[in-house]
Amino acid sequence: MAGRSCVELYLRPSAEHTLPSFQLCASLLVLIFTGSFSLKARGRITMAGNEANNSGSKGKKKEVKKETRLGLKNKKDENFGDWYSEVVINGEMIEYYDISGCYILRPWAMSIWEILQTFFDAEIKKMKIKNCYFPLFVSSGVLQKEKDHIEGFAPEVAWVTKSGESELEMPIAIRPTSETVMYPYFSKWIRGHRDLPLRLNQWCNVVRWEFSNPTPFIRSREFLWQEGHTAFATKAEADTEVLDILELYRRIYEEFMAVPVIKGKKSEHEKFAGGLYTTTVEAFIPSTGRGVQGATSHCLGQNFAKMFEINFENEKGEKQMVWQNSWAYTTRTIGVMIMVHGDDKGLVLPPRVASVQVIVVPVPYKDADTKGIFDACSNTVKLLEESGIRAEVDLRDNYSPGWKYSQWEMKGVPLRIEIGPKDFEKNQVRAVRRDDSSKHDIPMADLVEKVTTMLEDIQQNLFNIAKQKRDACIEIVHTWDKFVEALGQKKMILAPWCDEEEAENDVKARTKGEMGAAKSLCSPFDQPELPEGTLCFASGKPAKKWTYWGRSY
After folding, report:
1. 388-392 — which CB contacts under 8 Å span 24+ positions?
2. Fewer CB within 10 Å, N side or C side of the chain?
3. Pairwise CA distance, residues 40 & 5, whole Å
4. CA 549 to CA 475: how far, in whole Å?
5. What is the rounded CA–CA span in Å between residue 267 and residue 538?
6. Distance (Å, rounded) from C-alpha 405 to C-alpha 417?
7. Is the pLDDT of residue 78 over 50?
8. Helices and strands, counts by H and E, the chain
């Protein structure tokens, strides 16, 4: 190289570009250029030519200081699908697996599931619901016993047909849900009224194979869930439990995930196959204009009891069939949260589900008391942890503070605390919120109180913003033309409906297209007033209720 040369490589890391990639780049460049290389703590590679030390003012080497930043290539509002894929990978939520539609849940995602599991498991135990576990496999004869039920799941059932090189005499299904797995044993265990209620729950995985367009958390071939299965002597008891469980699902979304949902009832066409009625909590993704069935609580009535002969003898010695429920929520909750709160910097985690609520980052300078700053960071974490706040310190010395800021923002940590020389001297910290990027200087004496309040405010602010955005997407319409217009604007549509399946099927047929057909999402429990003479938006017949409509995942 002639003369002085200084080159800096600006790398934009992604899932494939981690620190080892920087080192590899440096090694490759050594083969190409003649010069000296330095891999800096802030993630940049600099190269000074052979004559660098002999040129420039006073013979000093001059470096161009430029910091490597983590970032997303796609914008949420411009390319939602690719943005979502980037966020779940770069945010370390999942890793893609070599079987399409299957994903590895990394610890960052699994910790969220565990927090939800801890809450829900404690609540159902207060209701005297007990955990159990049933096998993953189900025989074809049992699976096909309830005709309507299996027809609803038939396209999604995965079958085991071979053992080694030998064909099985009878194919074995992998559970898509466990009604037909569990209910033959309900029949065995329930004999008299003293055996009721029977209330069981299991935490497990299920497999639903046949689908297109897999989406991490939202639509996958295998997913984690809890599924509750209960039996009662009376319908009144079953009805009460359906709504009690639905309220727990609302709390999961609104109080933990900071996602607003609408509680309501599914149409006859959209209800659980083989059930009496289905209740749901429905979420909505403003960025895509699609609804999401967040979780469902079904009253199965006596249909399965009839099929599986689940009978009991009442106090009068009379033989009766039980009333049954089933209810479930899945890892889909995590995907909904990401879609609602995530931004162009990455994940945005509500504090109640973040495994790390506060990340503490030291910001030392050349002449600073580095040990003192590091000790202050560790003491800060200790104080927060002792108060029940989930906190960690990032003491890695191979990354700059700026690089760490970007990474923890990508991972959605609710609050970042920075401690630099001035903070150390003033016995304070600087707190930076993930939700609004605001900065706050906090004296150490007020640390726990201020951080606790700030985390509560972040949680509430995320919910408020999400609700404002969701509510802005709700459109009330009375006519078909207005319905089509609102659908094209990606709205969640509230319209008067005649509650007839023929009209519902007609809506699907008339809106079918590349974006997918519209369908009923739910009829909300909180019904607006329906003036006499109001007509159905789709059929023109007298309307019986208000129902939410839209495209959905």
Report:
1. 389/357, 389/358, 389/448, 389/451, 389/452, 389/455, 390/354, 390/355, 390/356, 390/357, 390/358, 391/356, 391/357, 391/358, 391/359, 391/360, 392/356, 392/358, 392/359, 392/360
2. N
3. 18
4. 10
5. 15
6. 10
7. yes
8. 15, 26
Q: Is the previous residue joined to 197 through a cis bond, with omega within 30 degrees of 0?
A: yes
Q: Which residue has the tokens 């509650």?
A: 499
Tokens of 416: 């970042």
Q: What is the DSSP string of 368-385?
A: S-HHHHHHHHHHHHHHHH
CB 153 within 8 A of CB 145: no
pLDDT tens per residue, range 492-536: 999 999 999 999 999 999 999 878 899 999 999 999 999 999 999
Question: Which residues, 6 or more positions from 375, have their beta carbon under 8 angstroms from its beta carbon?
Answer: none
What H or E segment, with its residue span, contains residue 283? strand 277-285
Q: Which residue has the tokens 């997407």?
A: 473
Length of the chain: 553
Structure tokens at 409: 């923002």
How far, in Å, CA of 238 to CA of 220, rounded?
31
Distances (CA, A) of 257 to 239, 260, 264: 26, 9, 19
Asked if 401 and 417 touch (Cβ cutoff 8 Å), the reply is no
Residue-averaged pLDDT of the chain:
88
Question: 308 burial class (0-12, 13-18, 19+ CB within 10 angstroms)?
Answer: buried
Query: Which amino acid type is present at position 240?
Result: T
Strands 130-131 vs 45-48: parallel, antiparallel or unpaired: unpaired
pLDDT at 201 over 90: yes
Q: How far apart are CA 278 and CA 249, in angstroms?
A: 14
Ordered strands of the 158-163 beta sheet: 137-139, 166-174, 158-163
State the Cα–Cα distance between residues 205 and 175, nearest whole angstrom. Answer: 9
Among residues 303, 355, 327, the alpha carbon closest in space to that of 91 is found at: 355
Beta strand 415-419 pairing with 358-362: parallel
- Looking only at the bridges linking them, the beta strands covering 358-362 and 391-393 are parallel
Confidence tier at 21 by pLDDT (50, 70, 90):
very low
* pLDDT number for residue 389: 98
Strand positions, DSSP E, 350-427: 358-362, 391-393, 415-419
d(CA 459, CA 528): 29
- Are the C-beta atoms of 213 and 334 separated by less than 8 Å? no
Q: Residue 4 has which token pair?
A: 């002085």
Specify the pTM: 0.86
Rounded CA separation 519/348 (Å): 30
